[in-house]
């Protein structure tokens, strides 16, 4: 079976990549395990040097990699350049600041010496999506490799060229053979990789359905997982918010990556006192966005990554309208080739509609009208998801309290749109997943936090009276 790469702006096939044979997979896993056994003993300086080399190689290739993303999954080329640069910055950050994240800790007990050390787990399997084909990979791989692990990548089939380019970046940057490998596989073969004894842990970014399947299989094998799944991020525009600034930020978030982001703003919750002005500002901002060929400078919204995804989004919009939502803008399938979908706005969105209850993975804003702030918070939390959220207000103390104490999400921003940052933990709760990436928390997800207890006498020491 071949993995097809199709240009979503034209519908034309770019290439077809044969899946790896069982023998090729066996070779890759054996090579990754052997690379780990050496890499785990490499000094921190050696690991950091690889990350610095990766950063340099990414910066050198930025224009080419951005064009590859535009060609293969439709990301506007300027956004692709920013994505590659963010990968490079993350590599530099972990190289410069990662040592304390992995430092051991001496703890006083009745032993002669007792301490905690962080040891790598082994080969980490990354199951990654197409929407940020470079950032999603480097977001887990940089800290995992810094911690002494190796990795094999099962990328989304429609971005196989990006996956192979990532492997080549590692190779050119001087990574030891096998330390990072791309597996050309369909999703039906992921379970066999999880079961393999040489794979120690799994990290997944993708849909909730994919997360459930991987977590169930990894659970059977008793293997550590980190899941960063879907989201339907609520953005609360409080009555005292600076509406032009708030709406500008909301639209920017909604249209990042042509609306195809887990942490894009999706549900905009406003009171009936401000909704008319919010609708007017939203319509003006969304209308001004330019949709077109992602290779063209100045384009804000490219095609959706696949035709089936575009068509599924349109069904969600039409079903929401049929159940009472009002279409303010867009909502029409454009003529011509490509998987394009225009920036669209739904308002009067109610519970029980796809725009309220599901994740709309495309450039569609859903405005939900409520009576007061308490209802804004209740509706924000009335979701199976819990990835990101934002609060807009001129009262920073009030906004901070709501963000910190009231909103059920792994990330909540005040007067800004949600984004990942190498310095901060990133992840969700509820059906948006568990575990954290980035910062010291991400580095420690794939280590064995090991207790070492040294007794001077060689006997039972003080432990007999304190058995588990």
Rg on CA atoms, Å: 24 Å
Runs in which pLDDT lies below 50 for 5 or more consecutive residues are none
**Number of contiguous helices:** 14
Overall number of domains: 2
CATH superfamily of the largest domain: Aldehyde Dehydrogenase, Chain A, domain 1
For the record, the CATH class of the largest domain is Alpha Beta
Share of helical residues: 25-40%
Number of strands: 20
Question: Which labels suit this protein?
Answer:
468 residues, seven-stranded mixed beta sheet, Aldehyde Dehydrogenase, Chain A, domain 2, 21% strand, 40% helix
Note the topology.
Blueprint: E1 2-6, E2 13-18, H1 22-39, H2 44-73, H3 77-97, E3 105-106, E4 113-120, E5 123-127, H4 135-146, E6 150-154, H5 160-173, E7 180-182, H6 190-195, E8 199-205, H7 208-220, E9 224-228, E10 233-237, H8 243-255, E11 265-271, H9 275-287, H10 307-322, E12 326-329, E13 344-347, H11 354-357, E14 364-370, H12 373-381, E15 385-386, E16 388-392, H13 396-406, E17 411-414, E18 429-430, E19 433-434, H14 439-443, E20 447-454
Parallel strand pairs: 5-6, 5-8, 6-7, 8-9, 10-11, 10-16, 11-14, 13-14, 16-17
Antiparallel strand pairs: 1-2, 3-4, 4-20, 9-19, 12-13, 15-18
Helix pairs in contact: 2-3, 2-5, 3-4, 8-9
Can you characterise this structure?
The protein has helices at 22-39, 44-73, 77-97, 135-146, 160-173, 190-195, 208-220, 243-255, 275-287, 307-322, 354-357, 373-381, 396-406, 439-443, and strands spanning 2-6, 13-18, 105-106, 113-120, 123-127, 150-154, 180-182, 199-205, 224-228, 233-237, 265-271, 326-329, 344-347, 364-370, 385-386, 388-392, 411-414, 429-430, 433-434, 447-454. The protein is built from 14 helices and 20 strands. The strands form five sheets. Strands 12-13-14-11-10-16-17 form a seven-stranded mixed β-sheet, with helices on both faces. The chain is an alpha/beta fold and 468 residues long. The protein folds into two domains: 2-229 and 432-452, Aldehyde Dehydrogenase, Chain A, domain 1, CATH 3.40.605; 233-414, Aldehyde Dehydrogenase, Chain A, domain 2. The chain is 40% helix and 21% strand. α2 runs antiparallel to α3 (77-97) and α8 crosses α9. The chain is globular and about 75 Å long.
